[in-house]
Write a structure and sequence with these properties.
By secondary structure, the protein is an alpha/beta fold. It has 15 helices and 14 strands. The two termini are 30 Å apart. Bound molecules: pyridoxal-5'-phosphate. The site of pyridoxal-5'-phosphate has 14 residues, from helix 4.
Length: 399
């Protein structure tokens, strides 16, 4: 009946595009156990090393005993628990916005925000390397979608000049998830003002990492505008827990509560997760040495790769891409690193454009300087890396 599914999957396997899930056990200290081996984990988005922090676990356990493990209903019905309300209040205070709204994931937040703000008569201007959740949000909105070349302010300007849409939205990742580079946020805000557009910035890989108080890249670059700026963040990366959030004016949050279907028709974030995320927000603020360490380790890794002859990347974040080219070669190299005790995912199309399969190294404050040295030594020079014999291709790989 559905044998086409088997045929298509066989095609994925032949092209090294087949994905399977690993079965990791977290081990702390930026490590995990996989198939009985202890590996240094360069695949996690746990940039501040908070995911396994016992203080988060205590906050979650306390909330579970007091409020239960599930929110049991949509936030509009009876799921808006005390831990969730406190989390939103603290997020708004941290982000210096009037209000904040928490979703069950960053993915849901992006679907919700774009589909609730934009509609058929509107135009969305979207960076070509934006995260899949922003792309899906654009589609769900039914607005016309104009994709501009990556971080290309000139191209965006041309596209904005040609539009006669009712309302305009400029949508971008702050830090791009596969390149680790920054969006030109001050220029994007300038264009938003010039063309009367809203600027929607997804700080998923920037929350907790940049700015004097760790708010994100907007803070780092001095980009603020209560009227025009919609900031999205995730609790699932640097903050080590789960969920997404949006910050902005009261009216914006009110609009989303009334209109955003992924918010209205989904169970609220569970109380233990909300309590743990709130603790993580406090720790991100109180322990700035975590973000300094993650960024310094990533700088050190980029420096070591340059010295070994790897081409410079645009990365300015704990995401360090090493572009290999063909999916097969990237997978082989990832497997060879795993044999050396290092878990570095190979990212293949369609997550990245064809011919740019890569290793995506995620550095964390949980890592030590020696971990970075070990990784650089194991990668060696580009010639070493690509001539490696590698193991079988039958093991799990992700991305
Ligand atoms: C990971 C990510 C998301 C999704 O966040 P989740 O909380 O994991 O659902 C959204 N946007 C960007 C840019 C991301 O990297």
């Amino acid at each position: 009946m559905s044998c086409w599914i088997d045929d298509e999957l066989d095609g994925y396997r032949r092209g090294e595009l087949y994905r399977r899930r690993r079965r990791p056990w977290p081990a702390g200290g930026g490590r995990l156990r996989l198939a009985g081996r202890l590996l240094v984990n360069f695949s996690a988005n746990d940039y501040l090393g908070l995911a396994n922090d016992p203080r988060l676990a205590r906050a979650a356990a306390h909330a579970a005993r007091r409020y239960g493990c599930g929110a049991t209903a949509s936030p509009l019905v009876s799921g808006y628990s005390p831990p969730l309300r406190r989390l939103e209040a603290d997020l708004a205070q941290w982000q210096a916005t009037e209000s904040a709204l928490v979703f069950s994931s960053g993915y849901a937040a992006n679907l919700a925000i774009l589909s609730a703000l934009a509609d058929r008569p509107d135009a969305i201007f979207s960076d070509e390397l934006n995260h899949a959740s922003l792309i899906d949000g654009c589609r769900l909105s039914r607005a016309s979608i104009h994709v501009y070349r990556h971080a290309d302010v000139q191209h965006l300007h041309e596209l904005l000049r040609q539009t006669s849409a009712r309302r305009r939205f400029i949508v971008t990742d702050a830090v791009f998830s596969m390149e680790g580079d920054w969006a030109p946020l001050p220029d994007l805000l300038r264009l938003a003002r010039e063309f009367d557009a809203l600027l929607v910035v997804d700080e998923a890989h920037a929350t907790g990492l940049y700015g004097a108080t760790g708010r994100g890249l907007c803070e780092e670059l001095g980009v603020s505008d209560a009227e025009r700026l919609v900031k999205i963040g995730t609790l699932s990366k640097a903050l080590g827990t789960q969920g997404g959030f949006v910050c902005g004016r009261w009216a914006l949050i009110d609009w989303l509560v009334n209109r955003a279907r992924p918010y209205i028709f989904s169970t609220a974030l569970a109380p233990p997760v909300a309590a743990a995320a709130r603790r993580a927000v406090h720790l991100a603020r109180e322990e700035p040495e975590r973000r300094r360490k993650a960024l310094a380790l990533a700088d050190g890794l980029r420096q070591r790769l340059l010295e070994r002859g790897w081409p410079p990347s645009r990365s300015r974040s704990p995401i360090v891409p090493v572009v290999i080219g063909e999916a097969r070669a990237a997978v082989r190299l990832s497997e060879r690193l795993q044999t050396a005790g290092l878990l570095v995912p190979a990212i293949r199309p369609p997550s990245v454009p064809a011919g740019t399969a890569r290793l995506r190294i995620s550095v964390s404050a949980a890592h030590a300087e020696e971990d970075i040295e070990r990784l650089a030594a194991a990668l060696g020079t580009p010639a070493d890396a690509l001539s490696g014999t590698g193991g079988s291709s039958s093991h799990g790989h992700c991305g």
